[in-house]
């Protein structure tokens, strides 16, 4: 039996999207619903794939099935395709599984030729006929025969000029007739063929052109960019023409069943009388608000409202529809899920659940994590942004928008912000812990160097500040207090605007639109539903009580990472330096006991209170000690200068001594150096002080009735013997504090899995550690052998450009490599300790694609920065739904 | 039925070593051979373990079985243990599976007491009797009752003084009688008990003391140090006493069946007439050469020779024996495989194969890899070394010994060596590629910093130069051209001696003993046998034709790693810098074509010729480019100084520009930076030039009749797409060179597996790469997350001290972690490409324990530095034998 390539609309349905494309399937569905759709049929995507695979030859029977279908169309309409007297006109439209702007779209009025245009002119209207014919030749020339579109426009321009008119609708029938002649000559000249007079030839070439357009460069680029498979192919939809431009009782329009901008349940759209669909969007005439139809064509209006309602209830989603009114009769040309803003998406989803149209799970499937991102961060006003001057583009490091005066050092930035109340953007070559007070004071951060996981980026995300990094186009001159972009100079105090989401820097002030989580009631509802379906919990990375409180407000169910070293940054750094520089063990211990211990207790106490009832994972000191000291290069420059100038007084001596200490501590590859538990094993007193602080705070809080669940995390473990050596020491300290305080609190000791060897030997490590937290930042660095501080700047972006990497592995977890290690560790860890708590606290904890992986691999929670918590909650729900086996709605 | 704890010698045999200990099993074996062994029995190691596990209580039946055995002994001798008139005297000796100096050894003359000593004095000789008794009390006091040995010696000293004599043998019977009295008082005073008069009590306590000695501190330390299990326990051997000190027809001796120093087939040893075994080794009297027995006691001599021959043929190994002659009758007290020097080990093994005593496989099992190491490298004369003053101890980085004058910079070192012919030791804080010419000129290298895989260490091994690194005790002052060790100052030009094998630095000149591979004929035979049984081939890491030729001479069967960057070091560096600093792509290409290409062709051509018929793996450029430029810090200092002094002329400008370039190239963690294929993907022209050079050289060599097998290795691969992008480009270049040259050569393209991700995704990578070479240095760094340049200096040694790590993972492969990745990669790689060539070219390729692992995991070859090739050949044979399932001889 011959394979079926061609489906009449009445043979299809919405479920056949893969075979018929989105447009074709929805047209079929509307026919099934009894809605007025022009007669038509769809040539399947399978036909396209066969054509492409077989040297551009139609598969057997395709053409004969097409002829049969065209005949049925003719019968329904009462016209014959190819007939010169009573011609059936058709449109040919592409339509793949997903809407794809890169592909050929539409050719109208197919079937006309030099003979039948005369018949049409006689039967209908002369101007209409010649206009229709020239439209056919123009579209056909452009999309089938590859003639440059501008050349057609030039011809029309000449005709406008010769007729002394301004717009196309004013052109006379004779003018359009002249256009037809000129167009035909143009095609003869510019293409290899000519415009075919045989309508069947027109049809064959049009179908082939649609098929071929699947593989044109724009389409391939688009699919590459959006991750759509190249193996789907496109369908071809053929419809009998209906005309909205045959009089004032005709028209065309597009509409949404609800507001795509606010989500309000209002029919919303525009239409033009006496016009075809393309005229509505071309801007030549201003379309009317669709509500005017109520007065102008009440019957059509009622029918349209009814159809909109039917479609929405049927599809259970807001629809974007196209319609044409031909002499008072309404025809539906398209329906599809409508694109919408973030706010609309959330409102529509919640409303539809309340209206009983969809389930909560379906509602969750309708919200994209980008929507939440967009809702929560201030962003530049779109219209103003479009008009503004972009100075440069860097890497989007932390979302949100900020406007402020440029300052080039943290101290000035802080001063201007605090003392003068200025909005400040801190601009630096890159940042170090020394700049953190300036970052806190600034509205946004811009760095010339560094990648998305550079210090600036990590801290900005932690602070929830907009941040653009790696913006190499700005050449900062710290001495002159300015940066240059090409010829343009931006001086200290000049205003710029940055979009952290887009990684863009603009000249001057652009208004920002700022949201408030408190007021986003529908979003809160959605997130509660998300929590109901998620299996992964969402915890947060928080180092201070205020961060903890904010994260909790955003719905965090625990702290997955409290970085104790962050407590020693900023104004506390000198105190910590005092410990590092202590000359005797006694002095060292004294600084720990008298200065650092009380500081840490205070912070921990605040965090425990904020997280009352929830677990708090506190990581012991992680970075190498030299990170807390001045940079070696700075000291080297200072000392060299003093030596050259013979300024060898006490200040010199002091600097020289510090330089010696820093030199001695410096490492070739500090990322893999003396840090984490390696440091703890070398100087246990530091870790002991930290554990004491945690338990003193926990016991004090518990005495006030706070429910505390401290979990102490030992970082940079690579060998179980490290834990076996340090953990008992620390457990003993914990026990003695509880003894002293006369109260017991539940606690755990566990470790980061951030070194490949730890993952590979997780079975051994799990015999000591009571929980695992995957540090996927470092794990990615070591599994790939790339340094995050260097790689983005040096080659990662180049790799993505060249297609060597699909994603930046610091943003989206590399499932095959890094993910494989996570999977190995989960399996081995659970084998040794089946009920083990496992989570992830790397940057990937806030990335939806990565969250999906963490769900699949069986973690208990992801931990991310407070501002990412809402996104992660939704992503966790998506992961649960996507992997439940139940179908989830595909985003359009 | 009661468990058997006690074995008469006639019930045991040499195969029961685990149960009876080495000494007991060999005594039993001698009895079975019909050799004259004093009657005796062994209490099993199982009894010891039971005793230790049960609160120091003898297991049921042990005591009664002992009594039975003692009775049998008495019957054989015609004396009764515990009898005061006719006492049976016995010795009690410990003896575990392996010989262990940490354990209690021997108590003689057990069974004597105040009564029976009188009987003995009457029957035998008064002096002998009292001497025997005091020996018992002295030994018993020391080893059973824990009385400090020195206190006994003090008493003897007093007696010597009071009798006015110098040596023990001169002491009168009355003197020894007095000693007995004093010893008993001493014991009363110093221990909790007293010397037991009841012989059965003596026996019980002695057995218990032997059992307990298994767990004394020295024994535990020894087992920890040598890797012997704590679970074996020790046996107790009880023998009827025979006496070599009962007249001039008596004596004791020790002997070897062949020379333990040269291996010559000569009976070799010493003896003393009228003496007990302990007197032979105590040095109080000078023993005679054992050959004198031939004249003194010809019958005994003949018997001894016959026994030696019997034992050697029976055990098929050189034996170390102890004997006693009691009134002309020869008794055998011990036999065991004799310890021997490296030279002896090799000669004995080869001779025994030729004599038909052992198989080649057995011969291989007799040679330790340390033997080869010792034979091939010059070493400090042992006697001279023992007398010399050690200045400091660092890390042993490259074996061998060197003596020379200290110089602190490479230029001076080179000048002194070349122009003045001086023997030079290069002493540096650490080395960089800039120092290589000095290292080449020096006899040896000493660095203050750095670990065993630091630049100095790696290059020294490559060069075969003795090297000590990480010698932190020497404080180098480059300005003063001296180093200090404590108070001691060593100035430029002063002579020192270093032992690379021991990691030691000595003041002054110590004679060295230097071997020559050419003359080590027996070793060559052994290594040929090794090659016959090995499955792993041994290749070499060689960067220059001379290295290649040397390695081939040592038996290398291919080059596993030719580091092309090493060709750019030393005097070639400026040429390579010219390429890096090129301002345009054109200039860059010009430097490549005109300067670097001819250089590389010449080197490759020489290497191909040297390796005629064997494969040569050439690795494309691996290190980051900034490694070839001056250091950033040096430039920073120079520029800062010039700025401070306002010396801003052209030299300043040049330095400043270079500083900018170096700063731009610098990386936070260069080990994980822009290097290897990442560099190749960024600047393909460099790799293309290298591939061109390889194939021009290969084609030219092939035209001369040389059989070339170039294999091009792409380093630092982490993702298959890297290979997919670069490899086709390079293959094309290879093809076009062969086209130009009009000749084809067989070739392969492959990759290093040195990044965890590459190992984890080896199945994908094997679809492109035609061979794998495991770079276990970098793989260890990234799997452990430790930087080799920092870790040894900062904490690895501390970890080994604390028992966190058993070995330095850069020396011995970490099987559980790094090895797991290797195993994963082998399995996945072979699944994708079953016949894939896989080898290892990291430092571990020359380490015997690691070679065993590489054998087990199924690699095809190990590649190591030329000087390690002989060691690796033997280790590969050992691995094959050890894992063949056939038993291999245990080293004593």
Report what the structure shows.
The structure is a homodimer of 892-residue chains. Chain A has 892 residues and is of the alpha/beta class. Chain A is 47% helix and 16% strand. In chain A, the strands form 6 sheets. Chain A has an 8-stranded mixed beta sheet with strand order 12-22-21-14-15-16-17-13. The first copy, chain A, has an 8-stranded parallel barrel with strand order 24-25-26-27-28-29-30-31, surrounded by 6 helices. In chain A, α23 runs parallel beside α27 (684-703). The radius of gyration of chain A is 34 Å and the shape is elongated. Chain A starts with 5 loop residues before the first strand and ends in a 10-residue tail after the last helix. The mean pLDDT of chain A is 91.
């Amino acid at each position: 039996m011959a394979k079926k390539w061609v489906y009449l609309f009445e043979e299809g349905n919405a479920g056949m999207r893969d075979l018929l494309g989105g447009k074709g399937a929805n047209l079929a569905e509307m026919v099934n619903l009894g809605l007025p759709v022009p007669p038509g049929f769809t040539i399947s995507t399978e036909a396209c794939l066969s054509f492409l695979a077989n040297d551009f030859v139609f598969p057997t029977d395709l053409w004969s099935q097409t002829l049969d279908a065209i005949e049925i169309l003719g019968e329904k309409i009462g016209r014959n395709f190819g007939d010169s007297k009573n011609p059936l006109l058709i449109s040919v439209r592409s339509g793949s599984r997903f809407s794809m702007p890169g592909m050929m779209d539409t050719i109208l009025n197919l079937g006309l030729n030099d003979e039948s245009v005369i018949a049409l002119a006689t039967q209908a209207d002369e101007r209409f006929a010649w206009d229709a014919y020239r439209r056919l030749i123009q579209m056909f020339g452009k999309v089938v025969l590859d003639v440059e579109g501008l050349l057609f426009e030039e011809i029309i321009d000449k005709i406008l000029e010769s007729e002394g008119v301004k717009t196309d609708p004013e052109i006379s029938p004779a003018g359009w007739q002249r256009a037809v002649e000129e167009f035909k000559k143009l095609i003869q000249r510019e293409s290899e063929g000519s415009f075919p007079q045989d309508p069947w030839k027109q049809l064959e070439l049009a179908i082939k052109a649609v098929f071929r357009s699947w593989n044109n460069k724009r389409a391939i680029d688009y699919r590459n960019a959006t991750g759509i498979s190249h193996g789907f192919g496109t369908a071809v939809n053929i419809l009998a023409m209906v005309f909205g431009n045959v009089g004032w009782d005709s028209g065309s329009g597009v509409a949404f069943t609800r507001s795509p901008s606010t989500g309000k349940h209002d029919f919303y759209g525009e239409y033009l009388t006496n016009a075809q669909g393309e005229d509505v969007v071309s801007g030549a005439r201003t379309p009317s608000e669709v509500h005017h139809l109520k007065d102008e064509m009440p019957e059509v209006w009622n029918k349209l409202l009814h159809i909109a309602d039917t479609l929405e209830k049927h599809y259970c989603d807001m629809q974007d529809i196209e319609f044409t009114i031909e002499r008072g009769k309404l025809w539906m040309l398209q329906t599809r899920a409508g694109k919408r803003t973030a706010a609309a998406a959330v409102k529509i989803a919640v409303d539809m659940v309340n209206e009983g149209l969809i389930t909560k799970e379906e509602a969750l499937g309708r919200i994209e994590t980008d929507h939440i991102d967009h809702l929560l961060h201030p962003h530049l006003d779109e219209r103003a942004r479009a008009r503004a001057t972009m100075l440069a583009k860097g890497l989007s490091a932390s979302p949100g928008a900020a406007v402020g005066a440029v300052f080039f050092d943290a101290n000035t930035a802080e001063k201007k912000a605090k003392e003068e109340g200025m909005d400040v953007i801190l601009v630096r070559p890159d940042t170090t812990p020394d700049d953190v007070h300036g970052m806190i004071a600034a509205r946004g951060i811009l760095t010339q160097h560094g990648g998305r996981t550079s210090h600036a980026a990590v801290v900005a995300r932690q602070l929830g500040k907009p941040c653009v990094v790696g913006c190499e186009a700005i050449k900062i001159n710290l001495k002159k207090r300015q940066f240059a972009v090409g010829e343009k100079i931006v001086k200290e105090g000049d205003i710029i605007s940055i979009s952290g989401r887009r990684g863009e820097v603009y000249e001057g002030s652009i208004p920002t639109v700022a949201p408030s989580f408190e007021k986003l009631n529908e979003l809160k509802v959605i997130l509660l539903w998300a929590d109901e379906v998620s299996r992964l919990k969402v915890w947060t990375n928080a180092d201070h009580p205020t961060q903890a409180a904010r994260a909790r407000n955003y719905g965090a169910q625990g702290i997955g990472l409290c970085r104790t070293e962050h407590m020693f940054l900023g104004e506390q750094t000198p105190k910590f330096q005092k410990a590092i520089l202590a000359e005797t063990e006694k002095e060292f211990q004294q600084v720990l006991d008298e200065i650092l211990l009380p500081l840490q207790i205070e912070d921990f106490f605040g965090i425990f209170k904020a997280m009352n009832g929830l677990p708090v994972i506190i990581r012991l000191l992680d970075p190498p000690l030299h990170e807390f000291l001045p940079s070696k290069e700075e000291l080297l420059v200072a000392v060299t200068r003093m030596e050259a100038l013979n300024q060898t007084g006490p200040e010199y001596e002091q600097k020289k001594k510090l330089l010696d200490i820093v030199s001695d501590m410096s490492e070739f590859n500090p990322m893999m150096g003396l840090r984490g538990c390696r440091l703890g094993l070398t100087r246990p007193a530091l870790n002991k002080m930290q554990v004491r602080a945690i338990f003193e705070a926990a016991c004090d809080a518990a005495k006030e009735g706070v429910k505390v669940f401290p979990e102490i995390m030992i970082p940079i473990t690579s060998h179980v013997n490290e834990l076996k050596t340090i953990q008992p020491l620390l457990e003993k300290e914990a026990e003695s504090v509880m003894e002293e305080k006369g109260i017991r609190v539940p606690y755990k000791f566990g470790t980061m899995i951030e070194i490949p060897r730890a993952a590979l030997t997780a079975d051994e490590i799990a015999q000591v550690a009571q929980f695992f937290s995957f540090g996927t930042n470092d794990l990615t660095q070591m599994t790939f052998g790339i340094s995050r501080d260097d790689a983005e700047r040096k080659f990662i972006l180049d790799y993505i450009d060249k297609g060597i990497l699909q994603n930046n592995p610091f943003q989206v977890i590399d499932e095959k490599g890094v993910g494989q290690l996570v999977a190995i560790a989960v399996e081995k860890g659970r084998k040794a300790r089946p009920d083990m708590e496992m989570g992830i606290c790397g940057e990937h904890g806030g990335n939806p694609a990565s969250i999906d992986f963490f769900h699949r691999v069986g973690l208990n929670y992801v931990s991310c920065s407070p501002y990412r918590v809402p996104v992660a909650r939704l992503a966790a729900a998506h992961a649960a739904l996507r992997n439940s086996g139940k179908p989830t709605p595909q985003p359009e």
